[in-house]
Design brief:
Elements: H1 9-16, H2 33-47, E1 51-54, E2 57-60, H3 69-77, E3 84-85, H4 87-91, H5 98-107, E4 111-118, E5 122-129, H6 132-147, H7 157-168, H8 177-182, H9 184-197, H10 201-215
Antiparallel strand pairs: 1-2, 2-3, 4-5
Amino acid sequence: MTQTLTLTLPQQLYLLCYTVDKAKFQLDNLQGRGQLLRAGALTELARDGLLSARGGKVVRKPGKAPDDSFTAAVWGDLPDSKPKGWLQFVHNKAHTAETPVRDQLSAAGEVAVSRGKVIALFPANRVTVAHPDKVRVLQEQVRATVLNGADPASIPLEELAMAVFAAELEVTCVWSRGELRTHKRALKALATRFDESVPGLRKALRNSYLSSRAVGGGWSA
């Protein structure tokens, strides 16, 4: 998949949740997005050899901290000696994940942030994507990862993560529920490959998302 945006994986995952046709981030695609961004950072850390995952647990490996401040912060949260379960590192600080990633995108000119109201009552940040055409291409590329029938082993980890995570969080601007059922076999093959690369992370993301969805939360202003 050709990279359309020179952005980190968390930044791309943030934009992936934007519904281009409605020119907004729909609430059903915001549930669990904080966890999604942290999972993206954890995937990059796994790719770069800065964490080790075994037996459903994760530990930080020594090395130079990532240049990206958000990913570096997630790396710093990981235990440096005794491995611990994934879930806490996906879930517990999810409510703090969106603001730093959004601010990075704003500084890069990819989004604009203004104050508005939710349901005409509560003040909230309104985020507008500056280049919706790029987001649409990104979404189509994620879909192609599933639809093109490529060997999962040949797909780069970042692309694999976007495809798998979009399905796990049921991101409706990428997949309808009907499509998730139709392509269940292909998605399962991709998920299996991702689990081989970063064992335990996908399951933790899914569990965290389901927990947040049950209480109608999972995102920050």
